[in-house]
Design goal:
The complex is a heterodimer. Chain A is mostly helical. Chain A is built from 14 helices and no strands. In chain A, α3 crosses α14, α4 packs antiparallel against α11 and α11 packs antiparallel against α14. The longest helix of chain A has 39 residues. The relative contact order of chain B is 0.12. The two termini of chain B are 52 Å apart. Chain B is an all-alpha fold. In chain B, α3 crosses α13, α4 runs parallel beside α8 and α10 packs antiparallel against α13. Classes of the chains: A mainly alpha, B mainly alpha.
């Protein structure tokens, strides 16, 4: 509204001063945004529809009866939502066990990463010891090693440790985290030194300073590490595919692929109900931890 | 009170030697879980991989030294060769699409719009990142089904005949790219969004006054200013695309033929299906070298092309 009045104002102005080089300018300002705005909103609407569409289609199809699930055109709004597909998922695969496995693996990795990254990050940021920079470089270098390169030896190592086909095989190797350590180091470097000096003057030793002064202050940083670990390992597929063998040790993504395999193309709605079920925890984390997750993901890029 | 108390306190404070001794040990204890864990689960495996790459070993019989044979396989074995070619084509196409879409959407979000809409769009584009690649690939597989898939149905509405998405070599490669980009463009989008938001408004206003609008302003003002982010985003996108596995594994299992088989899929198959651990290690090492090369390139390019403020 206000921009419109402004534009007509400039239009009148340019009309009174005929054929000055200033005339084309207001025209361009007037036209481009209008065409641009429509195009922009159209592009954004298409992009949003393409992003959300598949998820909404998955949800709506999971709410149809198995026999209706193939129907075309697909009804995006199920008039009579039908939950038999969800009941069927629970019959086909042991959802409870898969969720428990996933929760156990993801929870322990997240907790382990938060603890180990906080300790190591603090050491790199605030403690003095020989070889600090060299060790830190080595830790960072592991970020560049793809998991596929180490997976064969890790698989053998796990066998050697007698942990084959256990949940620990998934948990232990995932706890040392270069990225988490880096994040916590940055976090501790960002905290002021004054607290430590004040505490030292009061006679607190290095452990007390860490435990009572810096750990409470580091909780937001730890949350970033935890949420990132949760998001990554809840969705992890490659390592569980290799390191677990029996179905009782499967995590959710593996269970879903098995569900798909069991049924072939028998019923889409059952498989999609499973997919929706597996998304729920990620959705909860997304809703409540969106900001933290965003900060964590982008923190790695702006070293 | 205060003057008397500060003096004894300073003498109470442990001498520097003692302090650093305590700190050293505390540091060792603090680092132990991370450093020992990495030594065991990353460094030892890397060394083992380096050694294994020169052996033929199926776990059952004794390892047999074969020199560079496992690397020669990379050039001779058609499946391995094709998989590397596929991976490189995949990386080029997927990364260009991912960055293009992300940059386009991020710059569109810079325009004036209600803040609820901006928040909604930002969350929407970022949402696929929190889903698992396996479950995304599962539902996309149904959507791209030739007979009953919703994609072909939508295409039929505009008169396009059914595309055999998952059974033709070219179409299935395209599906793998599309599904991967669908899930991952949000990451580059977040990086670009942050970079664009950080550009001082005055710079665009100044450019406007100089008559630079639209594309001119974007290429001459915006792009140079966000070039560090473009570089980081492209390198991160390349590194993660080089490791693509979940999508082709669930969507097509590498097929039809070898058309969607990627380097990581061949590592997985050589090791855990054909029990050729040496070959798997050799392929893994070549992939690592590729990743290191990309990272090294990043450092070189950043010196030459990136404009830092």
């Amino acid at each position: 509204m206000s921009s419109q009045t402004l534009q007509t104002g400039t239009g009148k102005h340019s009309g009174s001063t005929t054929d000055t080089p200033a005339t084309p300018k207001p025209r361009r300002v007037r036209r481009l945004p209008a065409a641009g705005t429509v195009g922009r909103y159209a592009a954004l609407a298409v992009a949003a529809a393409l992003t959300l569409g598949p998820v909404l289609w998955t949800l709506s199809t999971s709410l149809r009866t198995p026999s209706e699930s193939f129907n075309l055109p697909p009804s995006f709004l199920p008039i009579n939502p039908d939950f038999t597909a969800y009941q069927e998922v629970f019959k086909q695969i042991n959802v409870g066990l898969l969720v428990l496995n996933s929760a156990l693996v993801t929870g322990l990795i997240a907790f382990g990463q938060m603890a180990s990254a906080t300790l190591a990050g603090y050491a790199f940021a605030r403690l003095d010891f020989r070889g600090k920079n060299a060790i830190f470089s080595l830790v960072l270098a592991t970020m560049m090693v793809p998991v596929q390169v180490t997976i064969v030896p890790v698989f053998m190592l796990i066998r050697g440790m007698g942990l084959s086909d256990t949940l620990l095989a998934l948990i232990l190797p995932a706890i040392p985290t270069a990225f988490g350590t880096f994040l916590m180091r940055q976090y501790f470097l960002g905290l002021p030194n004054d607290f430590a000096e004040a505490a030292a003057l009061d006679g607190a030793g290095p452990w007390r300073i860490f435990r009572s002064v810096y750990v409470p202050l580091a909780v937001p940083g730890m949350a970033i590490v935890g949420i990132l670990a949760f998001n990554f390992h809840w969705n992890e597929f490659f390592r569980p595919l290799i390191l677990t063998i029996s179905e009782q040790n499967f995590t959710l993504p593996l269970g879903l692929v098995t569900l798909q395999g069991n049924l072939g193309t028998g019923s889409i709605s059952v498989v999609l109900a499973g997919v929706i079920l597996s998304m729920l925890p990620a959705l909860v984390v997304f809703i409540f931890g969106q900001r933290t997750l965003r900060e964590g993901l982008t923190a790695g890029a702006s070293k | 009170m205060t003057t008397t108390s500060t003096v004894p306190r300073q003498t109470v404070k442990p001498p520097a030697v003692h302090r650093s001794f305590v700190e050293r040990w505390l540091a060792r204890i603090f680092l132990a879980p991370t450093v020992l864990g990495m030594a065991l689960f990353t460094f030892l495996p890397i060394i083992a991989s380096l050694v294994l790459a020169f052996f033929r070993w199926d776990i059952i019989s004794a390892p047999q030294f074969v020199g560079l044979d496992n690397f020669a396989v990379l050039a001779q074995d058609p499946t391995v060769r094709v998989s590397f070619l596929n991976t490189i084509v995949f990386v080029v196409v997927a990364v260009i699409l991912q960055l293009g879409i992300a940059l386009g959407l991020a710059s569109m979000l810079q325009a004036r719009m209600p803040s609820w809409l901006r928040v909604f769009l930002r969350s929407t584009f970022f949402f696929p990142l929190v889903l698992s690649a396996a479950s995304v690939s599962i539902f996309m597989r149904y959507m791209f089904n030739e007979q009953f898939g919703v994609v072909n149905w939508l295409l039929s509405l505009v008169g396009i005949p059914a595309v055999p998405w998952l059974t033709s070599p070219t179409a299935s490669a395209a599906v793998v790219v599309l599904v991967y980009v669908w899930q991952n463009f949000g990451f580059s989008f977040l990086l670009f969004l942050g970079a664009l938001t950080n550009i001082p408004k005055e710079l665009h206003e100044a450019a406007n006054l100089d008559g630079a609008t639209g594309w001119k302003q974007f290429s001459n003002v915006t792009l140079p200013l966000i070039s560090p982010t473009v570089l980081v985003a492209s390198v991160m996108a390349i590194i993660s695309a080089l490791q693509v596995f979940d999508q082709p594994y669930v969507l097509t299992n590498g097929g039809p033929g070898d058309s969607t088989r990627t380097a990581v899929m061949v590592i997985f198959e050589s090791a855990f299906q054909q029990l050729e651990f040496g070959k798997a290690s050799a392929i893994g090492l070549v992939l690592t070298v590729l990743i290191l090369a990309v990272t090294a390139l990043q450092f070189r390019l950043s010196r030459r092309f990136v404009f830092y403020q």
